[in-house]
Amino acid sequence: MAARILNPLSQLGAMRGKAVAFIGLGRMGSEMAYNLFSKTFAQEKDAHFIVCDALKDNATKFASNFTGQFPGAHVSIAETPGEAALSAKTLITMLPSTPQVREVYEEHIMPAFVHLGPQIAGESLAIDSTTLDVKASQAVALRMKDLCVAMVDAPVSGGVTGAKAGTLSFLVGGTEADFRQAEPTLSMMGKRIVHCGPSGAGLGAKIANNLMLGVQQIVTAEALLLGQRLGLDPAVLSGVIGSSTGNCWSVSTNNPVPGALADVSPPCEREYDGGFATNLMLKDMGLALEVGQETSTPLPLGKAAAEVYAQVVKERPELGGKDFSAVYKYLYEQAVSV
Ligand code: NAD
């Protein structure tokens, strides 16, 4: 069955209860939606899937790819997130950051729930997996609650590889009841579903994790560059660090030096394409610094790392869209030009 443009009014009623909508089909969202929809379809052949993206091409490509692989699956394309909310009981959003989440929920999803009324809203669930500002997320969740919609923040860890494999970790913030409601949906896209605490707690955990990751990726680049300057083969050095106290994900999985890892193929093997964009890491370091300031937490290494990513993006804008391990390429070129 070919994907079609959604007519939300035709979805109201029985079909809405069997419909799940995914908004934001970028690098992560497209893989997550694929796992969620394919696993749901395996269990419920009459389930209805709705996709929506600001770049309509992303939604169209996803829908035609999915229906090509799963003939008989019902996939519709919503023109706006509001249409998606009118048509599906479960909504998942995977957007770049705070401005997009505010816009999608405040200008589209909330008005749709005002239109639907508290009874239908009360049967609905919104899961936001975007990494964004904690306070902005809590404010959106509170307003959704006022409209009777259950909502959790459920940012992810595991990257595009984890999204593709369905092995993501979901860090969930919300009430116990909302967590329980979201868990079955999240389990179709991830392996570890952790209830971190009330609304915003999932994001707090995510931001703290990415603060560490952002710093580690830079220091990994520094250590591997230094080693090469001292005449070490980066593969040998990566093997040594990988089995020593300096080991971390940036060394053993997301190693930034082409050819340094024998059994994994990190983004550096593809000109740093795919993976987690430097622009997004810069955003996450900014989120950490903001919360650090609000809570009077000293973050000297976080501050320094944010400056390095800002420099990379400013001086080499093309690296902004590449995996953040491209910070190695930036430092390497600086070292060469010394
Ligand atoms: P992305 O930029 O590839 O995807 C975002 C998608 O949202 C795009 O398709 C975009 O067109 C769409 N979008 C933007 N504004 C929209 C709107 N108003 N309405 C509908 N769609 C809209 O980003 P990504 O890499 O998939 O990351 C998404 C989120 O996940 C970010 O918050 C990021 O920090 C987080 N994250 C990413 C990774 C990773 O490895 N890429 C890992 C963990 C967490």
UniProtKB/TrEMBL annotation:
Assigned keywords, A-Z: Branched-chain amino acid catabolism, NAD, Oxidoreductase
Record-annotated active site: K206
Cited Pfam families: NAD_binding_11, NAD_binding_2
Record-linked Gene3D superfamilies: N-(1-d-carboxylethyl)-l-norvaline Dehydrogenase, domain 2, NAD(P)-binding Rossmann-like Domain
6-phosphogluconate dehydrogenase NADP-binding domain: residues covered: 20-197
Superkingdom of origin organism: Eukaryota
E.C. number: 1.1.1.31
Annotated InterPro entries: 3-OH-isobutyrate_DH-rel_CS, 6-PGluconate_DH-like_C_sf, 6PGD_dom2, 6PGDH_NADP-bd, HIBADH-like_NADP-bd, HIBADH-related, NAD(P)-bd_dom_sf
GO cellular component: mitochondrion
3-hydroxyisobutyrate dehydrogenase-like NAD-binding domain location: 200-331
Single annotated GO MF: 3-hydroxyisobutyrate dehydrogenase activity
Catalytic activity: 3-hydroxy-2-methylpropanoate + NAD(+) = 2-methyl-3-oxopropanoate + NADH + H(+)
Uppermost EC category: oxidoreductase
Pathway(s) where this gene product acts: Amino-acid degradation; L-valine degradation
PROSITE patterns membership: 3_HYDROXYISOBUT_DH
Keyword Glycoprotein applies: no
Keyword Transcription: no
Protein's GO biological process: L-valine catabolic process
Family: Belongs to the HIBADH-related family. 3-hydroxyisobutyrate dehydrogenase subfamily.
Protein name as it appears in the record: 3-hydroxyisobutyrate dehydrogenase
Lineage, top ranks: Eukaryota, Fungi, Dikarya, Basidiomycota, Agaricomycotina
